[in-house]
Structures are given as C-alpha cells and as structure tokens.
Amino acid sequence: MLAEAAEWLRRRSSSAADWPAELLLGLKGATRVSVVLPARDEQDTVGGIVSTIRRELVERVPLVDEIVVIDSRSVDGTAAVAAAAGAKVFAQDAILPRLPCLSGKGEALWKSLAVTSGDIVVFVDADLVNFSSSFVTGLLGPLLACPDVSYVKACYDRPYNGAEAAFAGGGRVTELVARPLLNMHWPLLAGVVQPLGGEYAGRRSLLERLPFMTGYGVELGLLLDALEAAGLDGLAQVDLGVREHSHQSTEALAAMASQIMQTAWSRLDRHGLMMPLSSPSPELTQFQRGSSGYLPLDRETAVGERPPMVEIPEYALTLRP
Ligand SMILES: O=c1ccn([C@@H]2O[C@H](COP(=O)(O)OP(=O)(O)O[C@H]3O[C@H](CO)[C@@H](O)[C@H](O)[C@H]3O)[C@@H](O)[C@H]2O)c(=O)[nH]1
Ligand SMILES: O=C(O)[C@H](O)COP(=O)(O)O
C-alpha cells in the first residue's frame, strides 16, 4: 500500500461510536441534513429504516431535517410504506420531468439532489436488514466535525446470507472486481474498505458538481470523481460495524460488475490515465478486522509472461533429432 494511502487510512478513519448524536447536534449549527433512500421494491425494509431515523434523529435528537425516499419504479408497496413511516416520497420519473427518464440506482440518487435541500446529503440503501441510526450519525460525524472533509464512505463487515465471520463472502463484486481495479489504477484509494457500499454522505457543494452514473456504477464514479475534486484529504471513512442486506444472484451481479468496469474505463479515459495507460500497480490491499479497526494486508499479484516456447533455444534443441 502506498505510504500516502496508509497515512490517509490512519488519519481519516473513525468509527460510529466516535460520533454520538448529542455531540453532533452541538456541531450542526445551521447546517441542514437530508437523508436519502433510493428504493426499488423494498416494502419489507424501507419502513423500518425511515421510522428509526425519524424516531432517533428527528424526534429524539433533531439532527436530520428531511428524510426522502426516491421510489425507483417500485411495483410493490414501497411508496406507501415509506410515506406512512414519515418520509417524503418522490417517484424517480416525476423529478425533473423535462428530461428523458433514465433508469437505475444512480439516476435515483442524482435526482434526489433536485428535491432535497440539505447542505449535507446522506445516502442509505433501503434494503438494509440491520439498520441502526448510528449509520447516519457515523457518516455525519466527519462532515460536521472537519470542514476539510467533503465526502465520507462507510465501511463494515459484510457477511453473506447471515454468515457470522467478518468478511464471510459478502461484497462479491467488491472483492472480485472493484477492489482489484482500484488497487491497479487508483492505488491512492487502496485504503477504502468498501468502495461499493451504498452508505455514504457528501456536502451538497461537492455532490452538485459531480456527474452521477445512472446504474450501479454510481458509487465507484462518485468515489473517483470526489478524489479528483476534493483530493484524498477531502475523503474520510467511518466504520459502521456490520452491514446486512438482501443479496442478488451471481448472474445479476455480473451485470453490476459490467457497470463497475464501464465506470472504471470511463474514469481512466476522463482523468487522463488511459493514454498511455499508466502501468497498473501489482499490489492488492485487502482487509482483516483487528481489535481496533481494519488492518490492511498487502498481497503481491504481479503476473509474469513467458514467450512462445518456439522462441526458446533450448526448446528448439530438444526438437532436433
Ligand atoms: O434501479 C434501482 C436499483 C436499486 N435501487 C435501490 O438501491 C439500493 C441498493 O440496490 P441493491 O440492488 O440492493 O444493490 P446491492 O446488490 O446491494 O449492491 C451494492 O453495490 C452497488 C454497486 O456499487 C451499490 O449501488 C449498492 O448500494 C450496494 O449495496 C436499494 O435500496 C435498492 O432498492 C434503486 O433505487 N433503483
Ligand atoms: O458490493 C457488492 O459486491 C455487491 O453488493 C454484492 O454483495 P453481496 O455479495 O454481499 O451480495
């Protein structure tokens, strides 16, 4: 791992426990906070998440000024459940109606900027099954406490289908596609533990100046563009413990992986890393949970290359009668 990335990991990491709601209320002042949940067919989980935020962070400690659900073409009761729990609900396609409708999660998040007013916008997936209000307070902490920070990513253990061990198989696209890509082309971001996680927060002043990919490339695109716009020091990471959500099939995740790779390709091009393609880093940083946070583990992944055997003199000799 680059020394700069390791230093960032040390300096810009915190955990949700460092940011109790009462402390944040003292730091909030006149800053307005919006929480946005993109939701496509999440009637089983969206209501509980909205109610928890309303109860804990609107009524008990007034940190959050608005809770907005962007209904992303749901065909179930998502919109009604979210509204009954206390969210303002907007149909994705009804926002900015002059524009042609695009689809996917990134489109829902992009459009949320047009219907929210927070100086800070916190994004939370609507399919979380172990949501707690500390997800929101954790993400707000560095933004309310550090004026230099503009963008905060959550990190957490991601068990797969209820498995108990940390990192037990969850985040398949993260581990197999996004992390190797990041390490290869953006080694400065090797300390980001969950680059694809759906929970993150940013200042509106940054978010409104960034392009949003429309589908599942949105997290990687925002992370890479935030690095360009705010620099590594403008990013922070907060440990939220464990995240559990509903899992897609491997087949569906292949489409997600394709969107992640398209996003990486577009940013390599846009950020001038394509021509000539800067030589990719052969080092891969993975993570293990330690007693005081995540421990980076560097792994060498360099591949060698052999020429065709016919070019090897010794081989030619062995073929002679
Ligand atoms: O067209 C869509 C698809 C999804 N969602 C919502 O977006 C959130 C995350 O979607 P999901 O399909 O559950 O994604 P995951 O399989 O969990 O994918 C992970 O990786 C993605 C790629 O980075 C991120 O977008 C996700 O937030 C992250 O959880 C959920 O609330 C969905 O309801 C929409 O609003 N519109
Ligand atoms: O971030 C990811 O890699 C995808 O959301 C897949 O996660 P899962 O393997 O836990 O379903």
From TrEMBL:
Cofactor(s) listed in the protein's UniProt record: Mg(2+); Mn(2+)
Key words of the record: Glycosyltransferase, Magnesium, Transferase
Reaction(s) catalysed by this chain's protein: (2R)-3-phosphoglycerate + UDP-alpha-D-glucose = (2R)-2-O-(alpha-D-glucopyranosyl)-3-phospho-glycerate + UDP + H(+); an NDP-alpha-D-glucose + (2R)-3-phosphoglycerate = (2R)-2-O-(alpha-D-glucopyranosyl)-3-phospho-glycerate + a ribonucleoside 5'-diphosphate + H(+)
InterPro entries listed in its UniProt record: Glyco_trans_2-like, Glycosyltransferase_2, Nucleotide-diphossugar_trans
Presence of keyword Iron: no
EC number annotated for this UniProt entry: 2.4.1.266
Domain Glycosyltransferase 2-like: 34-145
SUPFAM superfamilies given in the database record: Nucleotide-diphospho-sugar transferases
Root EC class: transferase
Domain of life: Bacteria
Family affiliation: Belongs to the glycosyltransferase 2 family.
Name of protein: Glucosyl-3-phosphoglycerate synthase
Protein's organism: Actinocorallia aurantiaca
